[in-house]
């Protein structure tokens, strides 16, 4: 009778919630202990099926019978992966894999490859920090705005104060992306547990000043995520940044003083980090520019962007502990960054330069986060 | 030049992150101010395209030219909707809509319909509570486990203590579902702002005792969400429940005493709520059973399930303030619940009964949450 009840319950629950996955299923992604990954998709009558793995791979899959297309990949690096299929020209997700993330507006499946159990973006059995979605008040923008906060393991139990790392997203992102694609909570948990990073608070605000929150978390209703925001890189976000710092210092047990403040960001967030730190030279001893969207064309747009060279010279007089620049060799912003390095070199401003493979993509940014975080507050 | 930079940046970012959405796009879901919703999908060469809206609708779409299939719906109730398409038998999501949720293992698109601006599950411009993902210690289960906490607006700024509402998910769910499909944070924000509910803490634990966290948030790696959990409804979760209450009382400014404690859950969570409250009659003055998976076949499985009738009689001697039972008339558990009502009636145990349309589905559970929450702590 118990068994009968169980099966009835499961069957009905499946049926009634309109799952659409009662059709014969395949195992995908099928990940073995050695890190081999097999993707399988049922696509009856399809002519071509392609697998696209974020910016890493776009390949045809093979028809392996029984309406199934598949491909096996070996030797992939431990990391988070995002993928989808293209069936006869139509983008579809893997219905066998419930885990998805979006990159701006594109929804993809995800999995984490961690064959050795040491991938820094995987969840491990270590003490976990707390993640909070909070709404802070920005008097400058005249709005309540959402941001995400990572608190290190033990924060609640201790009376200790902690350093603060401000971590900024790129164009098309929002306050959630460093936790989602960026795996910031997992990276911090793992680095802190292994003693490679010191316990710290990580603050992830929303850098799109025309929205209060990620597009499905704001009162604007059914808005789609977009690259096109008002007041895009016009100085407004940088000018409102002290609202965030004030709110964080008021609401959390933070250590004050520049040696306990870090700021970093990817792409647009790198641009924000560059100008916020240059305009607030007393605030940050640690600056990380991850594939920063550096443009020398912003002068005149806002005083925030005026005289960058002079501001940098002044900032470096006070010797930032770490000024870190990372870029992929295939990044479309590589040239802009090379010019920026020339500017730093010309003025003998000392920075750490990290050149990686690949381009303007999350595989790099997760890696930069792992590297940069280990340098902080030491 | 600025314009040039902007377009270059956007184009490259789109291209390099492998979006796959540069193909000519359509507007979907296209939601007008009066609540009319048009779904459109590009599906060249498709023979049939269907639209499935959670358990509410499964209908053919019309080929409206230019490789596009569409359908327009009017008069839908304000609510959260989940939908997907079936293109020639293959389930696909709407590539024009970046917002998705999963129901157990099935990923679907979502939108919120709020034409009057008064839908209780929509985000409105009201003070927002804080949402936390925390890891609590369960000595009974010998594990650190993840749960979600909603704190009412103003919690951090005040020194006040708050009542606690324990809100439990169903089979196939986890600690995230009441926030995702259940929209608990939005419901609480809106009800508190309008004075219809008192400020309270809402605690959403994970009721699957064989997992520490939602399947993509645990150290188990690439596990898919499932209905099939070990120690499924065998008393283990109920027996470990005091670990959760102890941790919450230790870490939050809670009011103590049964008149400041509510417990409710959907389906399996209703079953958990029934037995936890019956076995801890001194702990909860408010009990909500939302389409509870009530089975009279559990006796002998665990002492937790023994002598329910006797325990209920004892529980009701102490007069719960609200004992609330909600079920849809088409729910496959309707009969079980009718039998349970007979048991309550036979013993003259006073409860509130709410019978709604529809079946075992989220549209009901969101509605029950809105109704039940307004009854609490008054």
Give a brief description.
Two copies of one chain form a homodimer. Chain A is of the alpha/beta class and 378 residues long. Chain A folds into two domains: 21-113, Immunoglobulins (Immunoglobulin-like, Sandwich), CATH 2.60.40; 130-373, 3-Layer(aba) Sandwich (Rossmann fold), CATH 3.40.50.
Topology (SSEs and partners):
Two copies of one chain form a homodimer.
Chain A: H1 2-16, E1 30-31, E2 37-42, E3 49-53, E4 57-60, E5 62-63, E6 68-73, E7 79-87, E8 90-92, E9 100-103, E10 106-113, E11 130-138, E12 143-151, E13 164-168, H2 184-193, E14 201-204, H3 236-239, H4 241-251, E15 261-266, H5 268-279, E16 286-290, H6 308-317, E17 322-328, H7 334-346, E18 352-356, H8 362-373
Parallel strand pairs in A: 13-14, 13-15, 15-16, 16-17, 17-18
Antiparallel strand pairs in A: 1-2, 2-6, 3-4, 3-7, 5-6, 7-8, 7-10, 9-10, 11-12, 12-14
Helix pairs in contact in A: 2-8, 5-6
